[in-house]
Amino acid sequence: MHCFPAGDRRVICADQSGSCYLVDAKMRHVVTMPHLHKPKSLPLSLFVPSTDDHNGGSLFVMDSALEPEAGGNGQLSHQFEALVYRKQTPIYPFKSWDSQPLPPPPFVCDPKYSIHNPPKIRSYAVVSGGSHICISVEGAAGSYFLDTESYTWSHERSWTLPFHGKVEYVPELKLWFGLSAKDQTLAAADLSDMDSQPQLVGTWRKEVNLPEEWRVSQDPQLVNLGSGRFCITRFFFHAGTLNGDRRDEQSDRYCVVLTGVEVTLSRVHHTNANGDRSSSEEKVDFQMITHKSRRHTSNGTDDAIRTVF
Has this prediction a pTM greater than 0.70? Predict the structure, then answer.
């Protein structure tokens, strides 16, 4: 089961067959959604809320490793689609959810990309107030922008975003936050101007110290809690004790560590050479406050946590 956040305490769930359900935690109900045109194996998602309807919006769902496709720009793809809340016909008075296949990024149709080693999307974000989404692809593919109204790809860039995974915009701080591509610690950048490669304007230390013998089992995840607050989730595997020459698999442990952090804005005054504070310059600085951490330990993979949202 894949779970895609859809804003305002809602999540859209998709099973292995492509069946979708909208779970509204606030209203405490579940609604059947249109099927995906094809199930996704390792999907990523971005939700763009509607500007004129607080119940609506568009959920963009894409495979994170896109296989090459024959054809040209403008063709529709089973690897990328959107669930859109809209009127089904101009004369129909009510809105409902609809499934819309979309054209893939241009590099998918490039013959130089092999099906045996398809490019993977490294980071992705909603930018320009929701009018575009940006994806950065590892290797030589660079970054691409999708117009969320016309569903056309444009503005190919040779650079990539300085993040790993999903990037979240925080309007209170006017910055985008994510886990850095370098060491996967919390970082921030200004993505309002995408004509050149964005640079990180803030990076912070790892939020929690963990035992060295714990091995990372999957990529960390960042959950935006609003107003500069986040939950950073890290996933680990701790091998069982050795029994002779064999590992005791019964004592294998999968650990998930969830840590709450908060980024706050502070202003620092710098006085001039004469010590005159009245003519001092004000510098904006950001601080990360680490709150509590919680650990969940499971025996084996059956009850291990895979996704946090």
Answer: yes
